[in-house]
Design brief:
Layout lengths: L6 E7 L4 E8 L4 E9 L5 H13 L3 E7 L13 H12 L4 E5 L1 H7 L12 H5 L7 H17 L3 H7 L7
Parallel strand pairs: 1-4, 4-5
Antiparallel strand pairs: 1-2, 2-3
Helix pairs in contact: 1-2, 3-5
Length: 166
């Protein structure tokens, strides 16, 4: 499906606490509109579906969802993200759904931590939300979609400014 602008991207980081970040794109702008963290895994897909319908009234919408990947060596994984993904796939069929592997967001838009050197690129975008870890993870997926799929120059330029030496 070919999407045009204006476009709303609803990004989802499913889990015991599900993070959601909503972004609006035009050809020349990007805006972080709102974010949520929901804690009821059994019904989170319904909240996402309501959100999709609300934004579909005036905009094209794409849903970007982190897919579940069982990591090798994890003996008792939490399958909550898998079940939420299943519910989204089975119950939300009126919007394009793009599935992203978990690592893709961490590789392009790295969070702070011992394994990741340097500043959080989400902060460079100006979109880091304090105490909203899961919404921040969802925002990273939206940025990956904007950069890699949309090739959205305003997003690219916002997050990777040229060094002052250039």
């Amino acid at each position: 499906m070919a999407l045009g602008y204006p476009l709303v991207v609803i990004a989802v980081d499913p889990g015991g606490t599900t993070g959601v970040a909503v972004f609006g794109f035009t050809e020349t702008t990007v805006e972080y509109i709102e974010h949520f963290q929901w804690g009821d895994p059994d019904y989170v897909w319904r909240e996402i579906h309501k959100l999709v319908h609300r934004w579909q009234e005036q905009h094209e919408v794409v849903l970007v969802v982190e897919q579940f990947d069982k990591r090798p060596g994890v003996i008792n994984p939490d399958f909550t993200p898998k079940y939420i993904g299943r519910d989204i796939a089975n119950n939300i069929d009126d919007v394009e759904i793009v599935w992203q592997i978990p690592a893709v967001a961490m590789n392009l838009v790295r969070p702070p931590g011992k394994r990741h050197k340097g500043a959080d690129q989400l902060k460079r975008f100006g979109w880091y939300k304090t105490s909203n870890t899961h919404a921040n993870d969802a925002a990273r997926h939206a940025i990956v979609y904007a950069v890699e799929t949309l090739k959205h120059m305003p997003t690219i330029l916002r997050g990777w400014p040229k060094p002052k030496d250039d």
